[in-house]
Amino acid sequence: MSQLELNSDVEGDFEELVTYFADVILPIPLPGSYTYRVPLDLKGVIQVGCRVIVQFGKQKIYTGIVTALHTTAPKVYEAKLIMDCLDVHPSVNSFQLKLFTWMAEYYMCTIGEVLNAGLPSGLKLNSESFIQLNPDREEQVDYSDKEEKILEALKSNDRLSYQDISEVLGIKMIHPVLKSLIQKGAILLYEQVKDKYKPKTKKVLWLDEKYLVDPVQMEQLFEELEKRPKQLEVLLKYLSLIRMDEGTTRAVKVDKSVVTEAGVSASGLKTLLKNGIFYEKEIIVSRIEATTTASVHQGDLSDSQQAALMEVIEGFQANKPVLLHGITGSGKTEIYIELIKQALESGGQVLYLLPEIALTTQIVARLHKVFGSSLGVYHSKYSDNERVEIWNQVSEGKVNLVAGVRSSLFLPFNDLSLIIIDEEHESSFKQYEPAPRYHARDSAIWLSQIHQANVLMGTATPSLDSYQNALEGKYHLVELHERFGSGSLPKFTLANILNARKAKRMHGDFTPELLEAIGSALEKKEQVILFQNRRGYSPYLICHDCNHVPRCQSCDVSLTFHMHSNHLICHYCGYKESVPAVCEACGSTAIRTVGVGTEKIEEDLKILFPEAHVQRMDQDTTRSKYGYQNIIDRFQNGETDILVGTQMLSKGLDFDKVSLVGVFDYDRIVHFPDFRSHERAFQLITQVSGRAGRKNDQGQVVIQTGEPEGGLLQLILRGDYKGFYQQEILERGNFNYPPFYRMIKIILKHKEPQVLQNAAVDYSALLVGELGKRRVLGPQKPVIGRIRNLYIEEIFLKIEKKGVSISKVKELTYRLNLDLRKKKEYASLRVYFDVDPV
């Protein structure tokens, strides 16, 4: 052997001896990443962004994401061996890793918490996972003995836990077997029973191939069926559907529903199936391919829309986020569609962010008509495995347009060129619990920077923060003040509740003005939307003899009465109890409801207008996967006359036949104890009012209030956003609130109120010592001071935008929190940070 060959072998052996390590982030609320040793058989397989299975602690198994590969062993602990790698190609790309890191730093949480929120559970194999049989698995696949054991166990069990599988196999190292079954498509992962995957299916029909192969047999079949006209009708319908495939020697499968909905005889089809002339099978279809082909978009832009489109493009060319301020009904969606077309034609990906699932239902239908199967939908009503389906399609470039709620930010985009944030003012873009407590609008703007993508924010009522950024030149402002087509702004009527009550003219919670307007709309066969931002039948029950109000056992709130289920329910922790027959405090039977929720309005309407079809849309009626879709479809199709709902009704829904919008409880909305209450009231009432009279004659809006002369209400009636902005921005400046100051809310929780109070005072003192008294507010109890048996205190930091480093303030705040919790008495204290609270 030559010296050169010898040196080559030595280098190869040396390479084998080098120990490689991987830094791995885990979906748990602990800071930083953890270093694991890469096994020899996985060297060259594991890449940055791959999912790996690792042990954490003595028993826990997690799926983590590799963020770096190197040869440096950890100094503090001995690195454990990576158990396995789940990916051939990375599941998470470099853009996502940058987003995870930024989000953890900006929103003061751990990167593990961001990963847990961003990665669908179906991509995470851990010791809390369940598995189920994949209903779409192939039976012909070869399985090992261990795999067969698991599959046999699943045939007699609906699901198996990680522990169950370990017991079935009699071993602890079960992950290689599970990995193999996942790769073979035999099993599916999920974390909760409610997320169990059910594939979308449809029934298909096809004609026995012998009739297509042999014209003589086809002729004989026609002669035979001439005496059976019902069966002949089925055959003719089938042949008309496959006409484009004439001359084929293979039977073409057609959707059974297309045949049956054509009015053919069900008994005729049944006989053909029984006689083996036709065959039937249920097949699984992709949810993403609901529309396979796009249609030509016929929506011509008006002159004002075309001018706005050109201004938006100017903003993009200046590399600025664009704020499109367009009044309700001005046709902002048509502009979005035109920009999406341009982005897709240039080969880029598009993210269309929406604040509510209710709004995705209607927007998605419009987008499907234009973009077909290029469109993917991503939100929480999809099961984990359905979200994995979209995740993979985006990663592979099969889906280049995604419409979804805030979690869509985490998808594996490779070439994002446009982000549209519809209804950018909506507080629903903010994640409250659990961490990361991020704002999707602000995070999307940061995401656009790492992708070099354009951002368009659209709304009829901009948030003060965004409008201020536009006026300062950080955003490019485009305004659209004309309604599209023949639509006109609605006529407002203020119904004075106090006067109606004094005159005893109220019908329950309805003023005579609102009742008359509803009756008039129904007579004209028009539709009505009634807005009440409270679900349930009544906010609470009260005993008229002793004033006792039933309260939650775990939270400092009264229980909401729900008539349909006949229960009192806590809307914070979910606690539920039966409605008492007598007062639990004094034994009296004089228990009465106080206030009104959507359920009570729905019941009253059915009594007042018995001929009308009434539907309710709130969290209680939309819990099922297609709850939103079904309610909106029925209203869109004219099957519902009156739609009662909470704020999800206000978010950009567009109905042709709505002529009246009624608003309950305006006064409670505007007087809510929060510095943004006036901004929210202006946005909410303006948005819900925009549902009236969009595409027909001028609509009407009836607002029930005890303060008809209120200044804010007059601005709403005039649609005077600029007047509202000028009035509100002065207040914000005078009292050091956003957009002039940044805010951080610190939430402290503990099961002992005195320990909590002491901790809050001590933490506040530490912060005041470093930041000064004027920047620290509190501690103070929130409106609801106890949830799930944990007492709550809050501290607010108000930091000026100029002259102070917000990142250094965050570092200081976090360090002082660690110092505080070193004290033994505060060991079980929970502290959370909410950056830019809304």
From TrEMBL:
InterPro entries in alphabetical order: DEAD/DEAH_box_helicase_dom, Helicase_ATP-bd, Helicase_C-like, P-loop_NTPase, PriA, PriA_3primeBD, PriA_3primeBD_sf, PriA_C
Cofactor: Zn(2+)
Domain Helicase C-terminal, first and last residues per copy: 578-748
E.C. number(s) listed in UniProt: 5.6.2.4
Keyword Nucleotide-binding: yes
Enzyme class: isomerase
Entries under Pfam families matching the protein: DEAD, Helicase_C, PriA_3primeBD, PriA_C, Zn_ribbon_PriA
Assembly notes: Component of the replication restart primosome.
HAMAP family (alphabetical): PriA
Function per UniProt: Initiates the restart of stalled replication forks, which reloads the replicative helicase on sites other than the origin of replication. Recognizes and binds to abandoned replication forks and remodels them to uncover a helicase loading site. Promotes assembly of the primosome at these replication forks.
Descriptive protein name: Replication restart protein PriA
Native source organism of the sequence: Reichenbachiella agarivorans
Origin organism lineage: Bacteria, Pseudomonadati, Bacteroidota, Cytophagia, Cytophagales
Gene name of the record: priA
